[in-house]
Structures are given as C-alpha cells and as structure tokens.
Design a protein that fits this description.
Blueprint (H helix, E strand, L loop, with lengths): L1 E3 L2 H9 L4 E3 L12 E7 L8 H13 L1 E12 L4 E2 L2 E2 L1 H4 L7 H5 L24 H8 L26 E7 L12 E5 L8 E11 L5 H7 L4 E9 L2 E8 L1
Parallel strand pairs: 1-2, 3-4
Antiparallel strand pairs: 4-11, 5-6, 7-9, 8-9, 10-11
Amino acid sequence: VGCDRSKSLVDICGEKHFQAFVCDALSVPIRSGSCDACISIAVIHHFSTAERRLATIRELTRLLRPGGTALIYVWAMEQEYKNQKSKYLKEKSGSKNKDKEMNTGTAQRPLSDQGPDNSSQDSAWSDQLLNDLKDESCGAKPVADFRLPVHTNRTSFHSQDLLVPWHLKGGTKKKEGSVDTVLVSGGSKESQELSPVFHRYYHVFCEGELEAVCRSLDCVRVQKSYYDQGNWCVVLEKL
C-alpha cells in the first residue's frame, strides 16, 4: 500500500492498479503495528523543522509491528563523498540530460524515476529554523534571515536549508501570482512559452544527522546507516 501528499501521483498509481491513497506523513491513517515494513523515500527532507522531521520518523515507526523494518532515504548535503561525485553532480546541462535537469527538483530516486507533482510545495518554516542553522556541524553557511537561498541545479549545496527550483513541464503563457517564470526555448514560436518555476523547500542532511535523529527514538534500533548516490539512508528495526 502506498501513500503520497500528491493526488496526481496517487491517481497515476491507481491507473497502474496499485493501492495508494493521499495522506500527510505526520498522520498516516493506518493502525499502529500493522506493517511488516515501511519505506520513506525523499520525503522527510521536505519538513522544515527538526521537530517535524523527528515526528515524521516517529509516525513511520508507529506503523511497524515489533520486529518490523523501515528504510529511509533523504537528500545528502555531501553530494561528493569519498572523492566520488554523485550522479546528481555529474549530470550537467548542455548534454542529453538537459531536459531531465530542467525538470528535476527531487532527490536521487533509488527505486524509481518518478518526478515531483506539478503543484508548488509550501515553504513553511519557523523561528526554530534559525536555531537549527546555528547548530550546523558540516560547514554549511547559516542563513542570516528568513530568505532562504535558492539552489542552482546540479551544483554542490552551500546551505542545509534551501529552496530548489522546479520548472513546470509544458508551462503556461500567463504568469500566475508571484510564481517566477522562465522562457522555454526551442521549436516553433508556438512551442515557446513562459514556464512557471516553483520553489520546493529542502533540508539536506549532513553525515550522521539522520542516524542521530533515529537513535533518539527509544522504540527502534538502527540496523544500518549508509550513503547511496547523494542520499543518506538508514534501516530501522521496531523493538
């Protein structure tokens, strides 16, 4: 059974005859202890405070039966690890991957190539965010005020808390509200149109950070912690 915040992605699952429903990762409508295993891929890094990220992991473990396991993937601050660049950094613009880059605002997917939905991701944060930034331990630059830096796709991260541009595929000829727009080139005049750019909030994790958050929960044991293509990953066991 799958769940996602995006109704559009859930509808795609339904078309493929998979069981899926729309829900909030902080409150999953499944009874406690009913799952043998849970997977959270590229979700937790979208929560804007340490408290909400911890609450999401706690909710994930609530679903597990004793002895059940969970796999968590989050985007890593370290896109170059042990002298090796991640696939994210290697895919530069101006190549056959240009279209893929224009439509990437998500973490490296280990299980599929699905992209984000076509709606904007709310970029909510609180006073606690600034306190979190003061405690950074991996060389990230702190944010001086509430204006988060906007990340340049396919480059290294310089802040743990940032906005990642998402270029809406297809686009629209009309500017909507405060949404930024860019001109998509190529083809005939009819195909050249303004494409809205949405900004999705990310908290990229430093080495050891995800594991430390998981270890703060008494109900689980960290079986494994590892790096995989620009992601920090843990495998948990419910006690």
